[in-house]
Amino acid sequence: MATNKKPGNWRKRTLAVRGGQTRTPFQETCEPLIFTAGYAYEDAEEGEARFKGAPGFQYSRIASPTVAMFEQRLALLEGAPVARATATGMAAVTAVFLAGLKTGDHVVSANALFGSCRYVLETVLSRFGIETSFIDGTDLNAWAAAMRPNTKLLFVETPSNPTLQIIDIKGVAALADKAGARLVVDNAFASPALQRPMELGAHIVVHSTTKWIDGQGRALGGMILCRQDFFDEYLNLFLRNTGPALSPFNAWLQLKSLETLDLRMKQHCENAERVADFLAGQKKVAKVLYPFRPDHPQHNLARAQMSGGGGVVSFEVEGGKPAAFRLANALKLIDISNNLGDTKSLITHPETTTHQKLTAEARAEQGVTSGLMRLSVGLEDPDDLCEDLTQALKVA
Ligand SMILES: *Cc1c(COP(=O)(O)O)cnc(C)c1O
Fold first, then answer.
1. For ligand 1, atom 7, which residue shows the shortest CA distance?
2. Which residue, 84, 182, 185, 266, has most beta carbons within 10 Å?
């Protein structure tokens, strides 16, 4: 395989289109989708050399050409030395914890988390004698107070799902450095178009590439981005031998999606801001959460570490669950779906879907109330979205 032009001092938007591309001898302009489980060697010596680390591929559980392009391109966009793709976002999160921790280690995590991340920390890791302290992630003193001599990983999702809490990545990374621990940031809600945690000091970034990176609701995927030391010491052999590999087809879709990520995110942010401002003016809406609105509790921090407020708006409908359900059921354009990060606007009621399995206390801690709705704002005309919400709010 011939490598395309070398990324010199290319800027992010150029890297998004060109970064990581390799070409076969056909010199195709579009990145090739290469499906193969294995690779043939010219001779036995070449086989031996590959297993000793010579460039080239051995087996697609370990690495494969199309997946490698996706990894390389996302690494360039995140400013990360290493990237490894996984089958889903949860495979990425789980691999980081299982690879990086052992019995007796301790984790500190923000309590505002995606339900499945909470399950892995609370239920899976505890079986292996790894304890997690859940704290208010917006309070730097709470992070400092929760640290123990055996704390190895700190975990945050920012903005968080579904209450869009913003956590100070620089501040928490500094605490991790002081303690010799590593900060893991789930960057699924922002994407590298809006936030680059490694540049703010995070040691590891995980993604559900299913969301804004795919951007069109087509394929599952995940990514782990990290520094070389974590990869060499913990991750490399774990991934090679446990096999949460991403399909080349999904990698190809999402590699091509990176080319338009920046443009799409700009429009998602613009639409979301419009919808958030519209909702804030509605009588039946008790509260709107959007990171770039001045009434968001961490508004200044959001502006400091993100270049856009993101595509998700959460809001509380007056009248709790019955009103929230009436609103959802009356929508004619916006779909009821627990997915997010699609061109199509999707709405969900977190209490009864994504956060249903949590205890009432855990939901209350995170601000997941009965009237809370999470809206992933798509690329439709925002006037149509506001009209749809207007007629549905009348019914609610
Ligand atoms: C969706 C999501 C995940 C899980 O990703 P999958 O691709 O669905 O496995 C993890 N974290 C956040 C913040 C998410 O939104």
1. 89
2. 185
Q: How confident is the model at residue 9 (pLDDT cuts 50, 70, 90)?
A: confident
Residue keyed to tokens 């990514």: 223
Report how far ligand 1's centroid is from the alpha carbon of 87 (Å): 11
Contacts of residue 361, defined as CB under 8 A and 6 or more positions apart, other chains included, come to none
Overall CATH class of domain 262-395: alpha beta
Mean local confidence (pLDDT), 341-350:
98
Residues with CB under 6 A from ligand 1: 88-90, 114, 116-117, 157, 161, 186, 188-189, 208, 210-211, 220, 222
* CA-210 nearest atom, ligand 1: 7
Q: If 0-12 CB within 10 Å is exposed, 13-18 middle and 19+ buried, where does residue 271 land?
A: buried
The pTM of the full predicted model, rounded to 2 decimals, is 0.96
Ligand 1 midpoint to CA 301 (Å): 23
Portions of the chain given CATH number 3.90.1150.10: 262-395
User: Could you report the per-residue pLDDT of 44-81, keeping only the tens digit for each?
Assistant: 999 999 999 999 999 999 999 999 999 999 999 999 99
Q: How far is the CA of 208 from the centre of ligand 1 (A)?
A: 5
Specify the domain boundaries for CATH 3.40.640.10 within the chain. Answer: 2-260
Q: Which of 389, 370, 390 is nearest to 319 (CA)?
A: 370
Q: How far is the CA of 88 from the centre of ligand 1 (A)?
A: 8
| Structural contact between residues 109 and 155, judged by C-beta atoms closer than 8 angstroms | yes
Residue type, position 225, single letter: L
Q: Is the pLDDT of residue 268 over 70?
A: yes
Q: How far is the CA of 33 from the centre of ligand 1 (A)?
A: 25
> Mean pLDDT in the chain?
96
Average pLDDT over residues 250-263: 98
The answer regarding whether domain 2-260 maps to CATH 3.20.20.10 reads no
Q: What is the pLDDT, as a whole number, of residue 152?
A: 98
Atom of ligand 1 nearest to the CA of 211: 1
Q: Which two tokens stand for residue 247?
A: 């399909």
pLDDT tens profile 295-316: 999 999 999 999 999 999 999 9
